[in-house]
Amino acid sequence: MSRAVVSLNSGSSSIKFALFTLEPEGPRHGAAGKLEGIGTAPHLVARAADGAVLVDRGWDRGAGLTHEALLGDLFTWAGDHLTDHDIIAVGHRVVHGGTKFFRPLIIDDTLLSALDALCPLAPLHQPHNLAAIRAIRTLAPDLPQIACFDTAFHHDLPEVATRFGLPRALHDKGLRRYGFHGLSYEYIDRALREADPELASDRVIAAHLGNGASLCAMQNGRSVDTTMGFTALDGLIMGTRCGAIDPGVVIHLQTQEGMSAAEVETLLYKQAGLLGVSGISSDMRALHDSDDPRAAEAIDLFTWRAAREASALISSLGGVDALIFTAGIGENDPVIRAAICARLAWLGIVIDPSANARNAPIISAEDSRVAVRVIPTDEERMIAIHTLAALTTAGGQS
Length: 398
Fold this sequence. Notes:
The chain has helices spanning 67-81, 109-116, 126-139, 159-162, 168-172, 182-195, 197-200, 247-255, 261-270, 273-278, 284-289, 293-317, 327-332, 334-343, 353-357, 379-393; strands at 2-10, 14-23, 26-36, 43-48, 53-58, 85-94, 105-106, 145-149, 203-209, 213-219, 222-226, 322-326, 371-374. By secondary structure, the chain is of the alpha/beta class. The chain has two domains: 2-149, ATPase, nucleotide binding domain (Nucleotidyltransferase, domain 5), CATH 3.30.420; 196-374, ATPase, nucleotide binding domain (Nucleotidyltransferase, domain 5, 2-Layer Sandwich), CATH 3.30.420. A hairpin with a 3-residue loop joins strand 1 and strand 2. The longest helix has 25 residues, at 293-317.
């Protein structure tokens, strides 16, 4: 029986998971899947490393099933079908670690309570991250669980990059820029270092473009600046999130439109972004398929904002040598990549249309002054790596 760890990424309406067996060369992918449609029509698909379908199941009348109930079903399935694996720990993506938590940690009551206090900083993600932790505590109370923080990669940002123009006392209370998508950026740095070590040491902008989207300026494995700040609401326009906005708009919505703080939060997190601008969908694929001019306007705003924010990060880096696209849109949408690169043509970026169309690893032309790559992210692998590191630090076996 081979030992294994499970990586779990619990979101508002989905749970992604992956099983990694422990090998001398590092974690090896064994199986992965996604439980999506939570709250509406839950559907579970899991595949082996070779792509073979292990389970494909839906729940009739499952709209009322919670994360906890569905995780129970997932555990039951795993116990029946993954009998060749001894699962020694579960690692979780925890979106916000605040100022205190920037290394993977074994979860106990004290840590869980501290992470609860950070839920207002990531209301779309943190509560679901913690709900999964509590569910597994009930299902398997003796199984070690590890928190892996999405803010950790940015914890040593230059001091100037962490500050807002607010009174110092508020900064000291934690009102500062944190940055997110850190597990993804950490993986991208590792993958780029394997593919081109010299380029990884240069000035790199990574674009994590999905339903949630951000950019990160990196140099030699370190985050120098990033577009998300105090919360995962900041920066780029996203699927349902507005991105960076004049704070005066928030004041106006409350004082002139009569909206409560809760209503403003719902608007900016769940009703804005691509969905709000287009009035059609938060899914970029649906917008591409639409001939409604509002869809084209939303796409144009998405690429304009991405290029605009990338230009600002170039200032933080003092130049740029590589642009990396990753995540769902970044990895799979040649139209969006081409549009962003066209807006950054002043940098000397030249795209190879054929390479871009087939999502090739390198999509820049030979005469491009900036290397442009597509690197699929693997946050679940980073969670597995961090989980093993935490067990080792705590005196466990890896």
